[in-house]
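Handout, section 4.2: multi-component inputs.
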Amino acid sequence: MGARTQGFCALGARARVKDMLVTDTPATAVDATLRALLADVLGLGEARAAALTDDSGLFGELPEFDSMAVATVLTEMEDRLGILIDDDEVDGEIFETYGNLLAFSVRKVAG
Amino acid sequence: MSEHHLRIDPAGTPRASVLFVPPLFEEANRTRRTLVLAMRALAAEGLATLLPDLPGQNESLVPLVEVDLARWRAALAEAASEVAGPLIIASLRGGALIDHAAPAAAWWRLAPASGASLLRTLLRARVSADREAGIASSLASLEAEAAAAPLLLAGNLLSPAMIADLGAAEAQAVEPLRSVALGADGIAGTPLWLRAEPGEDRDMAQAIAADIIAWSRSCGVI
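Output:
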């Protein structure tokens, strides 16, 4: 069955939205992206993600936040914020609180 | 293929078949339940559905360290060639890296991931676990180590060939293809493959099935 359908496929291949990258993203957009990302990875649900404050503890505080989740969050931050994160930038501190993670992200996005 | 596969058939003669290529590694476990719900929804619409175990994954007896992407591509091509009648290949995430060698009438991909990004997450999980164990490692030191010997990454023992393959792998062009992302203009749902704890999403399973059916119809496959 090697033949491929040649017919016109109306739905078309859609452009991927993943690479939409806005330069000088404002801090509020980074904040929204970060909350959505934590909700996705940690399964927080919108309400818990929206309730995160600068002082909310992450690693060591949220039981879902294990080392695999840390790895997933870092890669998703790179994809969604259009940044690159080096090993030596990642210390325990940036995952201590939501405020720390947000400040780190805003700094990275600003370049 | 001597691997197990999960097969859900419709009540009557199938109009076509859908072969699902699961995400790779842990992401497969996180999405399996929702994928199977999508298979049931497709079977209810008269399509035969198939979810094969990739060698070295799920119930496979093959040690993962003996596997590389070429072997996965060949296994899928073999599984696809055994399907009678028109076939649609539906891949998720890293599954899109290995779905192009299989003969099909149409392809459908959800949130395709690059091999480099999957590998980076696996390497990072190892760095993070090493740090907790008091061992200093880095992405660079692990990559250097992986050039010579198999590396254990988040519970997966991967050969140097697999790690090199994965680092360079991108989804290949196939025709006709519908590539969808999550979101308002794609599949409504959450990226279950990222989730620290497995979940399921019935609405998303229905949306996946409906989108595959619409795509197959527009291509004249069903």
